[in-house]
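Tutorial, part two.
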Amino acid sequence: MVGTIVHQLTRNASIEEVERGGLSPYYTDHALGVYPQSAGGTPFTAAYIAVKGEPIADLQEDLAAEQKARVTYETLIDLCRDHPDVVDPLKFLREREVVHFQRFGEALRGVQDKLAQKKFYMNSDSPMFVNNNQMPVNTNNMNNNNNMNMQNYSMNNGCGCNRR
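Running the prediction step on this input gives:
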């Protein structure tokens, strides 16, 4: 969207207007085309998308990216405050970053809560099982139905996926 705004503002600009706006180096390389790069001229690269494959690290990275984008939009709003046609879409984009930040925060809390849950493991080496046949020992606290339920739990991990 920012690229579209820049394009709309520069598409009919004369060479003199481009030079006055400080866009000569950009114009030399890209004319008035939209080329994704930072304000300092660094081209966009996939290196900006930091992924580790670990949910908490990735969500923290997402949270940071949303905050950095919000700050960038606020800076652009400050630079363009006299142009409501430019500021209004930037305000929308800034608000969207705030909502994204909130959603990633909720996701992070959900992952942290899930990882903090007590885990329950059973294996055939437990004294509860006899003869390594996955049948629990009948104790005073368990009736046969409970024994069967525990056997099923140990066989399918309690989630129905049949993985051990």
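The radius of gyration is 29 Å. In part three we will examine how such features are distributed along the chain.
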